[in-house]
Amino acid sequence: MRHTPATVHLLWTGGWDSTYRLLYLLREGKQVQPHYIIDPHRPSSRHELRAMEAISECINKETEKLSGTLLPTEISEKAASVRSNEIEEAYNAIIKKMYIGDQYMWLADYCETRGIEGMELGVENIPGNNVTKAVNLVEYPYSKIFGKFRFPILSTNKLEMKEWSEATGTLSIMELTWFCHKPTAGAEPCGRCGPCEAAIKEGMGYRFPLTSRIRYQLRIVPRLRSFAKKFPGFYYLLYSLKHSK
Predict the structure, then answer these.
(1) Fewest C-beta in 10 Å: which of 32, 151, 162, 223?
(2) Strand 149-150 relative to strand 119-120, pairing
(3) 163 belongs to a structural domain
(4) CATH number at residue 100
(5) Are 49 and 212 within 8 A, CB to CB?
């Protein structure tokens, strides 16, 4: 399946960063094709889909502010396995050197399978983030994974996105977004997962109920991901054992 260059392909999760990029593109008059991949191991999918539905309804009412075209979201289930051996091999080569979440491997495979070039990812500016380093490395194996994407908001942080949305009158839409990967049974943000942690650290704590902020303050178990960033060889060993065939 090949797509026209006039259409901007965007991975949209219903979260703050990707929704900011979506609104920015629509305000520029672009035609946007959102993509959403359901991960059966992540309990936040129904919350994300609900948020996307609510945001889409608001966008359709704001045609003067958001003059672009929002195409129906392409929703698909995460594949049972990576189809491209080359992409899988490239990812394994990367994580021997630095920690990179395996979602980039799956997304690269998704793009290759569908013939999508330049899928936009809403990855924001986080100092010290390995993705920022990997994006700027043009040689193999980084090019095999990150060459599939564009990262248009790498120089932007969450508070700058908030300022933009206030200035453009789209903050009410932005605040319909969902960010927690492991919501509680009462549909509250957990306060402990990576997106919750990032949101609170970057000034978005006002969007959390008190109980979520307390859970954030009381988190005491060291995050494996933080450890893995310092010791990529250890992460590669764990990943290899988990995914050995």
Answers:
(1) 223
(2) parallel
(3) no
(4) 3.40.50
(5) no
CA quadruple 15, 18, 22, 23: dihedral positive or negative? positive
The residue type at 115:
G
174, 23 in Cβ contact below 8 A?
A: yes
Number of CB atoms found within 10 A of residue 4's CB? 7
What are 187's two structure tokens?
A: 């549909």
Q: Is 190 domain-assigned?
A: no
Counting as low any pLDDT under 70, the low residues of the chain are 1-5, 127-128, 220-229, 244-245
Name the β-bridge partners of 119: 149
Q: Which of 61, 81, 70, 58 is nearest to 28 (CA)?
A: 70
Angle between helices 103-114 and 85-95 (to 10 degrees): 160
Give the number of domains in the chain: 1
Q: Please write the tens of the pLDDT for every residue from 2-19.
A: 444 489 999 999 999 999
Q: What's the predicted TM-score (pTM) here? A: 0.88
